[in-house]
Amino acid sequence: MPRAFTRRSFLTGLSAAAAMGALASCTRSAVAVPGLPPQTVWSTYGVGTGTYNDVAAIANTLTQQVGMQVRLMTSDTGIGRLAPLINGTAQYSRTGDEYYYAFEGDDEYASEVWGPKRLRLVLAPPGNYGILVRKDSGIETVADLAGKRYPRLVASTSMNRKLEGILNYGGLSTADVTMVDVSYSEQIEALKTGQIDTLYQNVVGANVSELASQFPIRWLDLGGNDPSKYATWEELSPMMIAGSFTDGAGMEPGQSAVNLQYSLPLVTLADRPAEEVQMLLASMEKHYDKYKDATPDAHKFHSDEAMLTPLVIPMHEGSVDFLKQAGKWTADLQKRNQALLKREQLLAEAWPGFWKQHSGDPGIAAKWRSWKKENFPKLPAVNDVPTDSASKEA
User: What is the topology classification, in CATH, of domain 7-125+264-375?
Assistant: First the structure.
């Protein structure tokens, strides 16, 4: 990118491109709730995705019940979802893992245009994701994937790290499988035609349910009580844990398994008014029954199901206030949150000098990660999470 491009013009251009995609808006209600703005813009995934459908159901409910119009701005890329938030076009974003990498200034965010950003977690509904195989494949465990054709998802660094962590769970590495380049959306067809032997998916959704109706499938289990199986997970993808699930595509009633659990959360910037964030969450909770059955995952937006660990970016002040009132904020979470706020300060102080020293280096992202690991204190763990919150099952 030419250096003549400014940060503002770059981010504005990205959000303008996102705005050209599918855009959803709801009719404004005459009702108004103190503390909430009359209109907000939320960025998220593309129209038709389960993530978009969740947000659209909530947006419609907020418009009808509390008079806050929510306009949805879509993008298929992490940068495209976050750019409108950073430049002020959007006030909230439901994102993928990009929220963490942008907070840290990692990977594609290790650049002059980006660098570490002051992002805040608003709400983290849990989701379950994992790898499946055809039942007739003879593959029953992750270890059985040795020598098989394994997906390497195009332009999906964070998901590829998760796929590597899954291999590590089975005592394997990428050297033990045949890596096949494929896009996320092409996986199902690639599995059908034998190009790959396994694929990575959300456990619910129209596409994977359709696959299960055509071919019996098996979700490979990632459970057990051996910590060594998860040894690389925190380094590869610190927002993921092992979590049980039921009702996945192709599963029998009452059947359960363990795979990856992490959140595609709702985030905002640090300077979003605390009263607004708290009132937003209170409104979503109050009118939960209006949207909880709209999609397979909409019910996960209740605070009873919030995924409070791993906490990898600071929780917004308004969210903390809301969780305290709900009895779900603990001393350990507070300690972790304060450590993340301190980390944010350290990131802001260190990045300009690091960039000045290493700008133009194609390996800057890897060097930045290594430098932080060597120079920043380790974050405290969270142990006393309320029992009704999402928790580690490994």
Answer: D-Maltodextrin-Binding Protein; domain 2 (3.40.190)
Q: Where are the beta strands (DSSP E) in the chain?
A: 23-24, 39-44, 69-74, 92-94, 119-123, 126-134, 149-153, 178-182, 199-202, 217-219, 241-246, 256-263, 266-269
For CA atoms 158, 163, 166, 172, the dihedral sign is negative
The answer to whether 107 touches 101, Cβ cutoff 8 Å, is: yes
Domain 127-262 in CATH 3.40.190.10? The answer is yes
**In this structure, what are the phi and psi dihedrals at residue 318, rounded to the nearest 5 degrees?**
-65, -35
Cβ partners under 8 Å of residue 117, min gap 6? 82, 86, 102, 103, 105, 109, 269
Residue 236 one-letter amino acid: L
Query: CA-CA distance, 392 to 394, in Å (whole number)?
Result: 6
Q: Which residues contact 2 (CB under 8 A, 6 or more apart)?
A: none
Which residues of the chain does CATH 3.40.190.10 include?
Answer: 7-125+264-375, 127-262
Q: What angle do CA 37, 41, 47 make, to 5 degrees?
A: 145
For the stretch 243-289, pLDDT in tens is 999 989 999 999 999 999 999 999 999 999 999 999 999 999 999 99
